[in-house]
Amino acid sequence: MSILDQVYNQSFQDSIDLKQTVLDDEKLKATILEASQAFIDAYKSGNKTRFCGNGGSAGDAQHIAAELSGRFYFDRPPLDSEALHVNASYVTAVANDYSYDVIYERMVQAQGKARDILVGISTSGNSKNVLLAMKKAKELGLKTVAFTGEGGGAMAEYADFLIAIPSNDTPRIQEVHILVGHIICQIVEEELFGKK
Q: Which of 13, 49, 78, 172 shows the greatest Cβ crowding within 10 Å of its Cβ?
């Protein structure tokens, strides 16, 4: 078997194995479903959701927010959801004038209202800018959801809902993060607008 075949086969198998582990974890399932209900409750109350992360996790933040604000499976009214990094002028100004560590914290301070939801995404659970945003969110009365890897890292302390994927393999964790994000989007869409 060539190295190409090995990488291909092992990547698929590792992804399948981790997803099966998450599927079999009743406690994690309960947390994901409780977080989904928190999204539903927030939207029913006229609140919003915000997402933050770095690198691939920023991509996941933007992806999940777009599924909510645009559409997921069917046409329906948009939901107020956004990733906090999408304004490049804001991010670069705050990073330059203050620190990259506070880019999300300051946006949470500007936009966050009690009973909104902040989702912090970090495979380590220790990304300082995400951690500070979650801390600020808790101070302001937002509900917080942490998408992390095994153990949850420092973000676990500030998470109302800790979705800690039981792995230390960053790509595999990110694959499950986007699956969990899609599950939440589907539940929210169907609960708020009816299954089409």
A: 49
The yes-or-no verdict on residue 115 having pLDDT over 90 is yes
Mean pLDDT of the chain: 97
At 37, the amino acid letter reads Q
CA distance 82 to 50: 5
- Best CA proximity match to 137, nearest among 65, 84, 75: 84
Q: Is the pLDDT confidence value at 113 over 90? A: yes
Amino acid at position 152, single letter: G
- DSSP one-letter code for 156: G
Encoded tokens for 2: 């060539």
Assess contact for 177 and 57: CB atoms under 8 A. Answer: yes
Give the closest residue to 79 by CA, choosing from 71, 87, 88: 71
| CA gap 146, 135 in Å, rounded | 12
pTM for the predicted model, two decimal places: 0.97
- Please tell me the distance from the alpha carbon of residue 116 to that of residue 186, in angstroms, as a whole number: 19
What is the tens place of the pLDDT at every residue in 147-191? 999 999 999 999 999 999 999 999 999 999 999 999 999 999 999
- Within 25-169, where are the H helices? 26-44, 56-69, 88-97, 103-111, 128-140
Q: Measuring CA to CA, how many Å separate 184 from each of 28, 52, 60, 146, 187?
A: 13, 16, 13, 13, 5
CA distance 82 to 63: 9
Confidence of residue 195 (pLDDT cuts 50, 70, 90): confident
